[in-house]
Every structure is written in structure tokens, then in C-alpha cells.
Design brief:
Elements (H helix, E strand, L loop, with lengths): L1 H20 L5 E3 L4 E3 L3 H10 L7 E5 L5 H6 L4 E6 L2 H14 L3 E5 L12 E4 L7 H10 L3 E5 L9 E8 L2 E7 L2
Parallel strand pairs: 3-4, 3-6, 4-5, 6-7
Antiparallel strand pairs: 1-2, 7-9, 8-9
Length: about 180
């Protein structure tokens, strides 16, 4: 697992360095919101802490460049859903090059059936609108982890917060 993780980290480091050489940051606006790269080591550490291998099916909502979904695939059945064409294409490219088993869906997570996942992950770039919370209340069968405390669900039960490199990742359930 550690060796595969290092391969993922290396691929994303190369990708981000290529962006920087072009004068671009590994973040920015997309058609559906804002994308920002996550820190590989932090994601890997978080998944170890929550024992992601004990979950059956993971999804990253708004998976961007796919890094979180690909790291999750080292632990369990994993998926990511992303609206932006370029980010989705990059995720598929890295997944295929590394021969990882993650489902990478091009689309809008508000239109995707979330009922088959027992763990959901989101790094929200805007408030949980009533549509997203309503969808989660209807379809979510497990837990939701929210990366950051800028935007949090209004109507869900807040659980434990994990601090990874000074970033909070909080567990939510339907309560």
C-alpha cells in the first residue's frame, strides 16, 4: 500500500509542478465551483486514522483531479465524481497510468445516486445549499466527512473532528 501511495504522490507532484511551470497554481475556478489540490500525505493519514478499509464504498463529491478518490482506492472500493472536463480527464489519466481501481464519474454529484456509498467525502467550496442537504437526507446511508469548517451541513449531526496538519475533517451523520 505504501509503495502505491508513493506512486500516486509522485504523479500528482509532477502534475502540480507542470502547472506551476506554466504559471498556474494547483487550484482555481471551474464551471461548477472552486478546485484546490489536497495534500497527499494528509489524505493518506486521515484514511488510516478512520480505518477506511472498514468501509465498503467511498465517494468523493467534487473529486477534482481525483487524488482523494485514488488514495481511497488503496483502502476500499472508491469513486469520485467531478463536473470539470479537464480535471476529470487528468484523474482518469493518472488512474489508468497507475492501474488503480477507482470509478471516476464525469458529472454533477447532485444528480448522482449516493445511496450505494457508506462513506462520503466533500471539501465544499460553498455553503451546503438546501438541495444538497435534502439529497443527503434522502440518499445517504452512512457517514459524511467534511474537509474544513468553512462550510458545514445545517441539519446533520456533527461527530468527531480529526485534525490533520491543522485542517479539520469532521464526521456527520443523519443523527
Amino acid at each position: 500500500m505504501e509503495q502505491k501511495f508513493q506512486q500516486i504522490k509522485k504523479e500528482y507532484d509532477l502534475f502540480y509542478n507542470s502547472l506551476l511551470r506554466k504559471g498556474q497554481l494547483p487550484m482555481g475556478d471551474t464551471d461548477a465551483g472552486f478546485w484546490g489540490a489536497s495534500v497527499s500525505e494528509d489524505v493518506f493519514e486521515f484514511f488510516r486514522k478512520i480505518k477506511l478499509q472498514n468501509f465498503r464504498h467511498f465517494i468523493d463529491l467534487g473529486s477534482g483531479d481525483g487524488k482523494v478518490a485514488l488514495i481511497a482506492s488503496l483502502f476500499t472500493k472508491s469513486a469520485g465524481i467531478e463536473f470539470d472536463d479537464d480535471l476529470h480527464r487528468k484523474a482518469v489519466e493518472i488512474r489508468d497510468r497507475l492501474k488503480l481501481k477507482a470509478e471516476l464519474v464525469k458529472g454533477d454529484f447532485l444528480k448522482h445516486d449516493l445511496s450505494k456509498y457508506d462513506i462520503l467525502f466533500i471539501n465544499p467550496d460553498k455553503s451546503f445549499n438546501k438541495g444538497l442537504e435534502k439529497k443527503l437526507r434522502k440518499e445517504m446511508k452512512g457517514v459524511l466527512f467534511v474537509y474544513n469548517m468553512i462550510y458545514m451541513p445545517d441539519s446533520m449531526k456533527k461527530g468527531k473532528t480529526y485534525w490533520i496538519s491543522s485542517v479539520p475533517i469532521t464526521k456527520y451523520t443523519m443523527g
